[in-house]
Amino acid sequence: MEKRDQLYEGKAKVLFATDDENLLVQYFKDDATAFNGVKSGTIADKGVLNNLISSRLMALIEIVGIPVHLVKRLNDREQLVRRVEIVPVEVVVRNRAAGSMSKRLGIPEGTVLPRPVIEFYLKSDELDDPLITVDHIDVFNWASHDEVDQIIEMSHRINDVMMGYYANIGIHLVDYKLEFGRLSSDPDTLVLADEISPDSCRLWDMETGKKLDKDRFRRDLGGVEEAYQEVVARMGLQN
After folding, report:
1. What does pTM read for this prediction?
2. What is the rounded distance in angstroms from the CA atom of residue 231 to the CA atom of residue 46?
3. Does the pLDDT value for residue 36 go beyond 70?
4. Burial grade of 127 (CB within 10 A; 0-12, 13-18, 19 or more)
C-alpha cells in the first residue's frame, strides 16, 4: 500500500491518500488541544500511545459485530483506515456526570447516572460544538432517521463493550466521544471512525479516582504522559 498526498490535517491526526481510493493512512500526532483549540501544547509520544489504544479498542468493537473504519495498525503512528464521509455530529456517551454535563446541570462530578446518557453535538469549532437534539439533526439533514437509530444502537453496544473492558483493568469509563462515517465505497453503511483514546475518553482509576486522560492536560494537573502510559500498561500493550 503506497502512501500518497496529504488530504487533511486536524488537531490530533493527519490523513493521507493511498493508491486505493477507498483507503487512507491515518497518522497520529503528539499535538494536544483543549477547549476547541483555545489551549494547545504537546504530549510526548501521545500519537504512539493513542494509536496503540485506539487500535485495540476498535478491534474489540469490531469483534462484537460493529463495523469500524480501521483496517490495521501499520506502525507506531499510522493506521490503514477506510475512507469515510464523517457524519457532522459528535456522539457523547455518559456513564457518570462530568465536564460540561456537570457545569450545565449542576450535578457533582462523578455522580453515577441511572443509565447511560447519549448526547449529540454539532461538529463545528467555530460554534464551539453546540449541544443539539435529534430534531436538529433531522431538520438540517445532518443524518437520516435510520442513521440516527443506528448510531444510538451502536453507541449503546460500544458502551457495553468498553465499560466491561475498562472495569476489568480497574478503570471507570466516565464518558467519551464517538464519531461515525459513511463508507466511500458504500455510503449506505455507517462505521465507527476517528479514534477512541484518552484524548476522547474520561478514564478514572477505580480505587483512587485518579484521572488517566486528557483532563490532566485541560486542567493543568500534570503527569499527562504518565497517565497515558498507565492506560497502555493496564491494557497490556507494548509501547
Report:
1. 0.94
2. 12
3. no
4. exposed
